[in-house]
Write a sequence for this structure.
């Protein structure tokens, strides 16, 4: 360190490892939404890093059109990190998503249907999407499909949603047995967060079960169960209501009944 200060030459500083080094691009494990398409009213993006990242990350992140043109001001100036410091959630500017607001009128919407966009860090693309139509309905649990599982097996239970859910809502679903006790197992989101796969730790027992869904579960556009993100200030959404989807595990290959 003394040698660098005394000589004061940038070239020698680099040779001796004393110059300030630019931060290296962190390794990305997962970007959500992980599918190939996002709604035009996308609200959240989550980035999972392999290790904790030092310093502010948001200034290093950009959202670009297919031609490389950077979209100005797409995110709220806030970094939301998971407790372990590995997952960063970016919030798209709500004022440019909701219709009738000043920011949208002045700057326009962030995404437009039919466009191709790319998320980049340090100028390097880490995820590309096609922009689809706006999603203004939200998750409809009555349209979900629960695949059959066999009793006395460790067969994973697969729940197919009516559309992708927010990638951070993995633990907003769970299985309860006939006694109301939580079934222990490992869950993951698959198929671009449009399916939930649950592998039980112990074999399924024949009987009645319920898929429990927290009312605050959302889709990538911020729509919740029974409520929409795009609501008027004069008609705010009601309180979140949890949902229960009953199913039965049979002891034969007849499968599962709803």
């Amino acid at each position: 360190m003394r040698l660098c200060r005394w000589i004061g030459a940038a070239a020698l500083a680099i040779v001796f490892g004393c110059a300030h080094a630019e931060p290296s691009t962190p390794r990305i494990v997962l970007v959500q939404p992980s599918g190939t398409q996002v709604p035009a009213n996308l609200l959240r993006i989550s980035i999972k890093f392999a290790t904790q990242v030092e310093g502010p990350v948001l200034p290093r992140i950009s959202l670009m059109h297919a031609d490389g043109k950077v979209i100005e001001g797409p995110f709220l100036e806030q970094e939301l990190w998971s407790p372990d410091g590995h997952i960063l959630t970016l919030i798209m500017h709500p004022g440019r998503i909701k219709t009738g607001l000043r920011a949208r009128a002045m700057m326009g919407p962030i995404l437009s249907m039919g466009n191709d966009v790319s998320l980049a860090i340090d100028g390097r693309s880490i995820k590309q999407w096609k922009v689809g139509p706006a999603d203004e309905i939200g998750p409809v649990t009555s349209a979900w499909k629960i695949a059959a599982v066999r009793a006395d097996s460790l067969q994973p239970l697969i729940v197919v949603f009516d559309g992708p859910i927010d990638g951070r809502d993995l633990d907003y679903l769970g299985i309860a047995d006939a006694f109301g006790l939580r079934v222990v197992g490992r869950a993951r989101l698959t198929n671009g967060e449009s399916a939930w796969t649950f592998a039980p730790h112990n074999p399924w027992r024949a009987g009645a079960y319920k898929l429990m869904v927290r009312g605050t579960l959302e889709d990538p556009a911020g729509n919740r169960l029974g409520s929409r993100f795009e609501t008027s200030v004069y008609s705010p959404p009601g309180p979140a209501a949890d949902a229960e989807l009953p199913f039965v595990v049979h002891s034969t290959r007849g499968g599962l009944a709803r």
In short: The helical segments are 2-7, 10-15, 102-107. Residues 166 and 220 are 5 Å apart (CA to CA). The first strand starts at residue 28 and ends at 32. The domain at 141-257 is CATH 2.60.40.1220 (Immunoglobulin-like).
